[in-house]
Every structure is written in structure tokens, then in C-alpha cells.
Amino acid sequence: MTRILIFDTDDALFKKVAERIVTTSADFISRKGRFTIALSGGSTPARLYALLATPFFEMQIDWSKWFVFWGDERHVPANSPQNNASAAIQVLLSKVSIPASQVFAVNTKQPAPEAAADYEKIISAMIPEGGLDLVLLGLGTNGHTASLFPHTQVLHNITRKVMEEYIIELDQYRISMTSHFINQANKIFFLVTGKEKSEIVSRILGDEKDKDSYPALYINPESGNLSWYLDAEAAAGI
Question: Cα dihedral sign for 174, 179, 183, 188?
Fold first, then answer.
């Protein structure tokens, strides 16, 4: 099932997503005893993470039962401003009572192929069957999500959970969960804000069929729920 939710402001969007994360994590913890989540990188989710770290939301979450992963990572040092895990740890995870042993960042000290293979082993050990409880995703103006970029090999892999990919236009390796694995998640939330995203949102949620050119189209959960959280500017074209 796919839901599209549009909010007048991005503040309202982040508040609603934070509320949904509170209730979603509580539900999985009550049923399974833990909650697994893949965080997203970029500037948009940073505001969500800061909100979750505020006392109002922080006190509503049983962080001791959280197990945190990342949907993708840039192959840069852990202390780089571009490192997705470092940013989320600084804004959120260092401010809440989650055990460090339950935060699983990509080891970017290794070459990209080894980093991807090791991350896949960690995920397989922690999640031997099925997928994550929740995956947070963003959307690039070129239609990429996580580090699933247009016309890359990772788009067509249907066996791996994590792969490395050299992105020519960025001159950088990325390590990313595959769409095959993301689509096994119970819930997937896209968070998209800003008028610069309106054109690509209209393509992804419209009649566009060229998945290789617009990789976000590969995100189609096998049995879980997909929710698009859009502010009014991002939704202007639909």
C-alpha cells in the first residue's frame, strides 16, 4: 500500500514523521522486543533527527530496544562532514540512551567492496530473515534514493543486501542497501521537501516508467507499506 501525505510546511511534516516513528517503534518493540531502522543521509532528515532528540520525543522512545543502520553511506572518513552516520550520531544518537553496540555504521576505513561486504554480513546476522522494520529515504533531484543512482549496476541486483557503486559524476564510491533489500522492509518513509524537488516528485508519482533513469521507482515494497511525506512545495507538481 502506498500513501501520499502532503503538509503545508516542512515543520508540520517533520512533526508528523517524528510522531509516526514514536508509534511505529513502540509497536514493533511490543510485538518483537526490538525495533530496526535504516536512517537516511542528507540535510532533510537532519531536521527530523534533531526533533527526535528533543526531550518531548526522546522521552517517548525506548532507545534501548533500537537497532540502527544506514540505507547508504559515502565512502569518506567517519569524521568527514559528508559521512551520513557521523551526522546522525552527532545530531541524534549521541544525545539519546541507545547502546553504542546497537548502532551499525559502515566501516569506511576499508576499501569500498570490503566495506559493502562487511556491512551486508552485519545486516544478515542481525536480520537473518525478512527486512527492516522501517527505512527512511530521501529523493534527489535526479531521481536517486539512498545511493541508487541512475543507470548503475546496483539497480539490477536482486540477491545482495548491500553493494558498493562508483558514482562517476560524483567521483566517489557509495555503499548502499539495494532496492531488493529495502523493499523487504515493513515500512518505508520517503521524506521530500522544497520546491526544487517538485519536478522529480511529479515524475516519480506520475506516469514515469523508466526506472533506470529514475531509481526511486525501484522502491516498491514486497508486502510492506510505503508512505510519501511531502511538503506543499515538493508536492506542487502532483
Answer: positive
Quick check: 74 and 83 in contact, CB under 8 A? yes
Mean pLDDT by 10 residues, the chain (238 residues): 96 98 98 98 91 98 98 97 96 98 98 98 97 98 98 97 97 98 98 98 96 98 95 97
Distances (CA, A) of 151 to 34, 44, 210: 36, 24, 10
User: What cell was used for 175?
Assistant: 555503499
Cα separation of 53 and 23, whole Å? 16
Burial of 173 (0-12, 13-18, 19+ CB in 10 A): buried
How many angstroms separate the Cα of 39 from the Cα of each of 111, 185, 192, 235? 22, 13, 14, 23
- Alpha-carbon torsion 211, 231, 193, 238, what sign? positive
State how far the Cα of 155 lies from the Cα of 164, in Å rounded to an integer: 11
Identify which of 189, 188, 179 has the alpha carbon closest to the alpha carbon of residue 211.
Answer: 179
38 sits in which H/E element: strand 35-39
